[in-house]
Amino acid sequence: MTNIFDGSKYQEAAAKCVAFIKRQMNVNNFTHKITFGQEYSDYYSGDVLWGKVEGFTGEEDQVGNCNISVPQYYDYDYKGKVNGGASVSGDYAVNVYVIRDNEYKVITCPINGGSWQSMMTYKETYVVPDYDEEGKQIGEHIEEVTYDLDVEVGEGIKEFRLATGVSSHWEDISVPGAQYEKAERLVYEATNEISPENGGTPYRYLSYYTVRLYSYSDTEYLNDTCKIWNVGGGNFVWYTNKVAEGHKIGKVMQQIWREGKTQYDTIGIAGAISNIENGRLPASFLIPKDDPQYDKDGSTAQWVYGYCLNARTWAYDVGLALLVFTTSGDYDICREILNRMKYEQNSDGSFNFSYDIYIGQLFEGYVRTGAMGWLIWGMCYYTLETGDRSYIDMIKKGGDWMVSRQVTDAKDPRYGLMTGGIGSYNMSDYSYIDVDIEWCSVEHQCSGLQALEGCALVLKNKKYKECAELVRDQLFLKCYDKENGRFYQGINGGTPDSAWALDCTTWAGNLIFSVINKECSISCLETAKEVYLTKNKSIVQSTNKNYYNTAYSSSQTFSGFKPYSDRTPDYAGAPDIVWTEGTLGYASLALVLGEEAEAKKYVDECIALQNCEGSTGGVIYTTATFGMLPWEFHVWESVVSSSWLYLIIKNPDVLFPRTLRQVYYMAKITNIKDERS
Question: Residue 320: its pLDDT value, please?
């Protein structure tokens, strides 16, 4: 197919799209990095939990202890004797504690000559007989033997507290002065050599920074607010033994004075089980900071279904990003994404519907066949284009999961189609329901077909190709609504879902296109234009929470395609908006059918929306916000719409690879095997 988008306008639009998606790889730009001492599971509770923070210089305001010090850094795992120095004289000692599920006092160490050590002095008394010169016992006397015994501390956080008292009873004290904390605590978790000139290093905690530890289940629950200790050697540590079950999330908080009051900014975030170290993922939306849905750290999204959307990525978007970066030649970014997804893949081969870009899987085990289809196809396309077969195992596990979703009972009305996935949400309160989805969505068949075709090419295994062809055939036989020239939304229990959704018609029209079914694809294009085309739509600004948009505007109006039709009650009250993702899906189908002018017309409309006032170069998702359930449409720049625009301009054939359009790929499928697993 001749590329009709060679002009400078289109190349500039494509360049803006790929630059936007790259920026979404670093959307929040936290200034500090928080880590956990280990991967604490969701079931971990009760015992101590600790970690470190990077990004401090040591010049920050700190509260210090100048009375006791340690000569080295005793970490969490250290077991053995401890010692240190002291700058006080008189009736003082150092109480040594190990912090685990409780505070365990190990020993009181008296201060002698400016130093202390975990050692006990034992005195044993013996009765010794006295003898005369002839060896006859004439009496007895008492002798004392004194010896020292080292006392070892066990695994855990070590604390040293200045104490005072008399005899053997020593109390933790507060040294007068507001700069001192009660009990004069010292805590440390790394190696730090101190100079003998000053006799030791006192440890300080930061005045205006803390770590908040949360456990996340249905929302965040605050476990503790933890001091951050400067322990020397560039190490800053935090800890707590107030730990509840749930996904552990740590946030670095900075206390600032703003607008006449004390406020707290999140400057770092991570989970105890977090995959950000293995690679970045693109945030799906660029949410303006004044938007009610903007929540950099989740702290204002309690009990709200849109938890931390600006740090969320959807598997569908990740798949599209792989297609974009493979096309643009940014293979290093592809490898980073793929390395990350190796850690996100579930044991059964599936991937979750969405992820937190910093933490990873944060939400319930919600899996969708369609989203996985795009993700696996993106993986396959990278592999086909680069020859890099490093990710074959991940692709195979994902492909096998897709095959497992196919209905194989020929008597079942859904025969040949793939079921929807795992998990659903109650729309009344957005509570999660752990259930297999028996419904077979047309959109899922279209998305999943790409994965199956890709797996056949990459893995050279007939089972994926056979699965794909059966899906393609049954998609037409079971789900095509000939009377209306469109595809149903899906099927379950033998009854087609007759709701009207644009992508079911345009995406299926793409995939069904062939010599035999070209007429079907033409009907889909005509129906889409007749039913879903909307004209003269403005970018709507509003400060109403459900319709919020103050960031994007334009003096012109736009034409394009809306997501749903209310021809049946299923989508009564559906938004009449230009939906850029759906509009570009229509343009893709027009291209397949050779309707180049029609395709170009609506690509131009999306480029105009890309260039609206307020845009940073990404394509806005809709012309008006309908943020409430079940619609959830927003006027935000999106990875999805930007990816679609880029790919239609640069590489339209990568969208829905078709059986009769695989000449290029068929050359790569030599020696295909009939392997069964």
Answer: 98
> Alpha carbon of 677 to those of 72, 266, 582: distances in Å?
56, 48, 37
Residue 558: in which H helix or E strand, if any? strand 558-561
Determine the residue type at 655. Answer: L
Under 8 Å between Cβ of 265 and 258: no
pLDDT at 492: 86
Which helix (H) or strand (E) segment holds residue 269: the answer is strand 261-271
CA distance 200 to 59: 19
DSSP label at residue 86? E
Comparing CA positions, the residue from 500, 545, 538, 507 lying closest to residue 658 is 507
DSSP class per residue in 613-635: BT-SSSEESBSS-B-STTT-B-S
For residues 482 and 475, give the distance between their C-alpha atoms in angstroms, rounded to a whole number: 13
Q: According to the model, what pLDDT value does residue 171 have? A: 61
Q: What is the enclosing helix (H) or strand (E) of 421? A: strand 421-425
**How many other CB atoms sit within 10 Å of the CB of residue 496?**
17
Residue pLDDT, tens place only, 95-143: 899 999 999 999 988 888 888 999 987 777 878 888 888 888 888 888 8
What is the average per-residue pLDDT within 236-247?
93
pLDDT of residue 23: 96
What tokens does 595 get? 């309707």
For 347-389, how does the pLDDT look when each residue is reduced to its tens digit (9 = 90+)? 999 999 999 888 888 777 899 999 999 999 999 999 999 999 9
575/571 Cα distance (integer angstroms): 9
CB 452, CB 464: distance < 8 Å: yes
Q: Band of the pLDDT at 667, cuts 50, 70, 90?
A: very low
The two tokens of residue 341 are 């997804």
Model confidence, pTM: 0.82
Segment 479-499 shows an average pLDDT of: 93
Query: For tokens 């599936």, what's the residue?
Result: 350
- CB-based contacts of 71, cutoff 8 Å, min separation 6: 83, 84, 85, 194, 200
Amino acid at 394: M
Q: What is the 3-state secondary structure (H, E, C) of 119-147?
A: EEEEEEEEEEEEECCCCCEEEEEEEEEEE
Buried b (16+ CB within 10 A) or exposed e, 348-385: ebbbbbbbbbbbbbbbbebbbbbbbbbbbbbbbbbbbb
What secondary structure letter does DSSP report for 633?
Answer: B
| 285 φ/ψ angles, rounded to the nearest 5 degrees | -130, 150
Tens of pLDDT, residues 331-342: 999 999 999 999
Evaluate if residue 267 carries a pLDDT over 60. Answer: yes
Residue 640: per-residue pLDDT: 98
The answer to whether 432 touches 362, Cβ cutoff 8 Å, is: no
Q: Which residues pair with 172 in a beta bridge?
A: 163
Q: Which two tokens stand for residue 553?
A: 């505007």
**Cis peptide upstream of residue 292 (ω within 30 degrees of 0):** no
Res 65: pLDDT = 64
Q: What number is the average pLDDT over the span 136-157?
A: 87
Residue 417: closest CA among 511, 341, 521:
511
Q: Which residues of 454-485 are buried (b: 16+ CB within 10 A; e: fewer)?
A: bbbbbbbbebbbebbbbbbebbbebbbbeebb
How many CB atoms are located within 10 Å of the residue 253 CB? 21
Among residues 208, 207, 213, the alpha carbon closest in space to that of 225 is found at 213
135 Rama class: left (phi>0) / alpha (psi -120 to 50) / beta: left
Strand pairing report for 367-368 and 440-441: unpaired
Q: Reduced to 3 states, what is the DSSP secondary structure of residue 535?
A: strand
Q: Considering only CA atoms, which of 343, 331, 375 is closest in space to residue 279?
A: 343
Q: What is the Cα–Cα distance from 325 to 341, expressed in whole angstroms?
A: 15
Q: How far apart are CA 561 and CA 582, in angstroms?
A: 6
Residue with tokens 């890309």: 610
